Amino acid sequence: MNKKNKTGLIKTKSSKDYQPFIKVADISSLGRSHRVFGHKTKRTHHLLSDLELAVFLLFEWHSNTEDIQEQFPLDLNVTKQIADSVGIKHPSQKGELKTMTTDFYVISKDIKSITSQLALQAKYSNDLDDARTIEKLELERRYWEQKDVDFKIITEKDIPRTVTDNIKWLYPSKNTYLITIDENDFTFYSEQMIKNSSLKIIDFCIKIDSAYDYPLGTALSKLKNLIAHGYISFNIRKDYRKIFCSDLSIVDSGYLNYIDKELKRASNQ
Fold first, then answer.
1. Same domain? 145 vs 209
2. What is the C-alpha to C-alpha distance for residues 267 and 269, in angstroms, rounded to an integer?
3. Which of these, 30, 128, 162, 263, has the minimum number of CB atoms within 10 Å of its CB?
C-alpha cells in the first residue's frame, strides 16, 4: 500500500530501484512499445506506446523533474472501495479484480526546492470517446484526489509537433530495440561530438562519413541508434535538424554495461 511520508509525497522505492507494474514483455501492445534508459533515474523505463514515449522524453529533459515512475500500480483495496462507492464496475480479468495503473507518477522540484507530484494518464484522443475508458479514468482521478495528487490526462494533441517529428525520426520501427550497440561506436561518437561541439549533428554526421569514407548516412544511422537506446539524449522539444553536438547529453560510461544487458534481455524476449 502506498503511504504518504512526512513531506506529503507518496512513499515509493527510490528512482533507481523502482520497477514498473507492467513491463514491455508482459503485453502485446497495439502500438509500439519502447525500452528507454532514463538519464535521471539511471534505469530502464518501459513505455507502451509512442505517446507514452513522448510524454516520458518531455519530463526526462525537464530540469525540474526529479523522478519518473511509469506503469504505477494503484492500491487495489482503494480503487475497489472507490468503484463500489460511485457505482462503477472495477476493472477485472478472468473474473478477478485487476490492479489499475497510472501511466506516470512524476516528482518535480522547482528552483525554490519545493517538491510537487503529478499523476498522468497518456491516452490517444479517440480512446476518450469510449464510455468504459471514461469510467476507469474517473476511478483513477478519484484515487489520486484522495492522495492529494494532481491528476491529468494527456493526448497526442497536447504533444508539440516537433516532439512527434523527432520520435518519428528516431523510432522507425519497434525492432529498433533489438539492434546491438557497439561500445566502440559509443566511445568514438562521444569523443568526436565533444571535438565538434559547434557543428549541427546533421553536418557532424556528414563530416564523419566523409572523413572515414563511409557510405552517406552511416554516421547518422549509428548516432540515431545511440540516441534511441538512451546512450545519448537531447531536448526532444528541439528539431533534430537544428540541434548541435553541444546540445547532446552523453550517458555516464558507468551505465554502459547496464544498458547493454537490458538490450540483450530485450532481444531474448
1. no
2. 6
3. 30
Beta-strand pair 115-122/150-154: parallel
Residue 76 has pLDDT above 70, yes or no: yes
**Last residue in a domain, options 158, 183, 199:** 158
Amino acid at 269: Q
End of a domain among 125, 158, 191? Answer: 158
15 and 130 in a single domain? The answer is yes
- pLDDT at position 63 is 84
Please count the structural domains in the chain.
2
- One domain for residues 120 and 152: yes
| pLDDT single digits (tens) 45-73 | 999 999 999 999 999 988 899 999 999 99
Nearest-5° angle of CA 116, CA 237, CA 232?
90
How would you write the chain as a 3-class SS string? CCEECCCCCEECCCCCCCCCCCCHHHCCCCCCCEEEEECCCCEEEEECCHHHHHHHHHHHHCCCEEEEEEEEECCHHHHHHHHHHHCCCCCEECCEECCCEEEEEEEEECCCCCEEEEEEEECCHHHHHCHHHHHHHHHHHHHHHHCCCEEEEECHHHCCHHHHHHHHHHCCCHHHHHCCCCHHHHHHHHHHHHHCCCCEHHHHHHHHHHHCCCCCCHHHHHHHHHHHCCCEECCCCCCHHHCEHHHCEECCHHHHHHHHHHHHHHHCC
